[in-house]
């Protein structure tokens, strides 16, 4: 698992690595990213604002050993596979979209 403030870069790193998250958002887009990770994609557990040692321990134990954690690890692995597919040489959606950006915006075609 990964303890994160749920910034977009950290969220992408976890998604691409297939790693579930303990989300501890502070400000900006972090609350939104946390909501998606925890409630929509089910690959994260949110931890409260004023965190105590016992709460961290309970969340980490759930993530690593609990049934919810097992499901989160499985879903995180699904996200890793999707990210890998998106970056496949020539056919991945990331590659295709980058080529479109270069062609349409930068080259003006």
UniProtKB/TrEMBL annotation:
Family, as annotated: Belongs to the UDP-glycosyltransferase family.
Keyword Cell membrane applies: no
Protein name: UDP-glycosyltransferase 85A1
SUPFAM superfamilies the UniProt entry points to: UDP-Glycosyltransferase/glycogen phosphorylase (SSF53756)
GO molecular function: quercetin 3-O-glucosyltransferase activity; quercetin 7-O-glucosyltransferase activity
PANTHER family cross-referenced by the UniProt entry: GLUCOSYL/GLUCURONOSYL TRANSFERASES (PTHR11926), UDP-GLYCOSYLTRANSFERASE 85A1-RELATED (PTHR11926:SF774)
Record Gene3D superfamilies: Glycogen Phosphorylase B
Record keywords: Glycosyltransferase, Transferase
Phylogenetic classification of the source organism: Eukaryota, Viridiplantae, Streptophyta, Embryophyta, Tracheophyta
UniProt cross-references to Pfam families, sorted A to Z: UDPGT
């Amino acid at each position: 698992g990964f303890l994160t403030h749920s910034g977009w870069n950290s969220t992408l790193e976890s998604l691409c690595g297939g790693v579930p998250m303990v989300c501890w958002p502070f400000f900006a887009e972090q609350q939104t990213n946390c909501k998606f990770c925890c409630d929509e994609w089910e690959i994260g557990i949110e931890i409260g604002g004023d965190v105590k040692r016992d709460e961290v321990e309970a969340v980490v134990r759930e993530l690593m050993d609990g049934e919810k954690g097992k499901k989160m690890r499985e879903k995180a692995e699904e996200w890793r596979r999707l990210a890998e597919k998106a970056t496949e040489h020539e056919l991945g959606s990331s590659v295709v979209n980058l080529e479109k950006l270069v062609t349409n915006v930068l080259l003006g075609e």
